[in-house]
Amino acid sequence: MSTVELTKENFDDVVTDNDFVLIDFWASWCGPCRQFAPVYEGASERHNDLVFAKVDTEAQQELAAAFEIRSIPTLMIVRDNVAVFSQPGALPEAALEDVIGQARALDMDEVRKSVENAKEGEA
Questions:
Q1: Which of 6, 21, 23, 33 is flagged as catalytic?
Q2: Which whole number is the average pLDDT over 82-105?
Q3: What is the 8-class DSSP label of residue 118?
Q4: Whose CB has fewer CB within 10 Å in the chain, the N or C terminal residue?
Q5: Which of 15, 22, 23, 30 is flagged as catalytic?
């Protein structure tokens, strides 16, 4: 599956309409981003049941700022509208596969419960 280019215009639709979205925040001038790109593309071909998306932080500065992206590449995984993973740095293939496996294994009912408990604790 090819990757989806995310913009502030389509971001909400893509994340809301899909249960599992991986997002690569990148820029064309970033060396580690260019190194990570083929690893990310390869994973998108192996996991065609998941949505692989990219955010060009130069073109989508508002989106990058909204997610407080300070370092690129940053990989984020959103399941059921909940960000379950976010980490800067280019991951090697084995680490990316491990992260995908861990995100697949999450009990989203438990994750939602944890998010609610955290929100209640802040109130």
A1: 33
A2: 95
A3: H
A4: C
A5: 30
CA distances from 55 to 67, 69, 83, 102, 105 (A): 11, 11, 15, 23, 25
Tokens matching residue 84: 């379950």
- Asked whether the beta carbons of 54 and 111 are under 8 A apart, the reply is no
Average of pLDDT values for 90-112?
A: 94
What is d(CA 45, CA 28) in angstroms, rounded to the nearest whole number?
Answer: 22
E strand or H helix at 94? helix 93-105
Instruction: Supply the DSSP string of 3-72, one letter for each residue.
Output: PEEP-TTTHHHHHHH-SEEEEEEE-TT-HHHHHHHHHHHHHHHH-TTSEEEEEETTTTHHHHHHTT--SS
Give the pLDDT score at 1. Answer: 53
29 in catalytic set: no
Structure tokens at 66: 């909204």
In this predicted structure, the answer to whether residue 25 has a pLDDT above a threshold of 70 is: yes
Q: What is d(CA 45, CA 60) in angstroms, rounded to the nearest whole number?
A: 25
Specify whether 84 is catalytic. no
C-alpha count within 13 angstroms, C-beta hemisphere, residue 65:
6
